[in-house]
C-alpha cells in the first residue's frame, strides 16, 4: 500500500505565503514524477506544478513566478511554496505521485487534499 499525506494548508491573507508538504509512505520501490493539482468546487481539477525525478519542473501559467515546487527524495516528500497568494488561488490542493510499489507496476496516487483559502 502507498499513501500520500498532505499538510500545510490553511487561511492566509492576499499577498501572503503558505508551504504545502506531501509525504509518500508505504511499500515504495521507486517514485517518479510528483506534483500538485487544485480543484474549486464545481470545476475540474487542474495542474498547478510538477517535478520529475530529474528535477525538471512544469507550472501552470497562473502560478508561474509565484509558486515553487520541489522534492526531497530522501524524505519521499514533495513541497509547494506558494508566495504572493491571490484570492483566485483558493482551492483544495491535491498531491500526486507516480509510484512503483514493491512487486507492483507503476501507478498514480493521490493525497486526500488540503484546503487553501486566500481571503482578507
In short, what is this structure?
This protein is mainly β.
Architecture overview:
- The chain is mainly β.
- It has no helices and eleven strands.
- Helices cover 0% and strands 60% of the residues.
- The strands form two sheets. Strands 2, 4, 5, 6, 9, 10 and 11 form a seven-stranded mixed β-sheet that branches. Strands 1-3-8-7 form a four-stranded antiparallel β-sheet, with no helix packed on it.
- The protein starts with a strand and ends with a strand.
Total number of beta strands = 11
**Regions with pLDDT < 50 over 5+ consecutive residues?**
none
What integer is the average pLDDT?
97
Quick one: biggest sheet?
7 strands, mixed
Q: Counting H and I runs of at least 4 residues, what is the number of helices?
A: 0
- State the secondary-structure class: mainly beta
Rg result: 14 Å
Mind sketching the topology for me?
Blueprint: E1 2-7, E2 10-12, E3 18-26, E4 28-39, E5 46-51, E6 57-59, E7 67-72, E8 77-82, E9 91-101, E10 106-110, E11 114-118
Parallel strand pairs: 2-11
Antiparallel strand pairs: 1-3, 3-8, 4-5, 4-9, 5-6, 7-8, 9-10, 9-11
Amino acid at each position: 500500500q502507498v499513501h500520500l499525506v498532505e499538510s500545510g494548508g490553511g487561511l492566509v491573507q492576499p499577498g501572503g505565503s503558505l508551504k504545502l508538504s506531501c509525504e509518500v509512505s508505504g511499500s515504495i520501490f521507486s517514485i517518479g514524477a510528483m506534483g500538485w493539482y487544485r480543484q474549486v468546487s464545481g470545476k475540474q481539477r487542474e495542474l498547478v506544478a510538477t517535478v520529475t525525478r530529474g528535477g525538471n519542473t512544469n507550472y501552470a501559467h497562473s502560478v508561474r513566478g509565484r509558486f515553487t515546487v520541489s522534492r526531497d527524495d530522501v524524505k519521499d516528500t514533495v513541497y509547494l511554496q506558494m508566495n504572493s497568494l491571490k484570492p483566485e488561488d483558493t482551492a483544495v490542493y491535491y498531491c500526486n505521485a507516480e509510484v512503483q510499489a514493491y512487486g507492483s507496476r507503476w501507478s498514480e496516487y493521490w493525497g486526500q487534499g488540503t484546503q487553501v483559502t486566500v481571503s482578507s
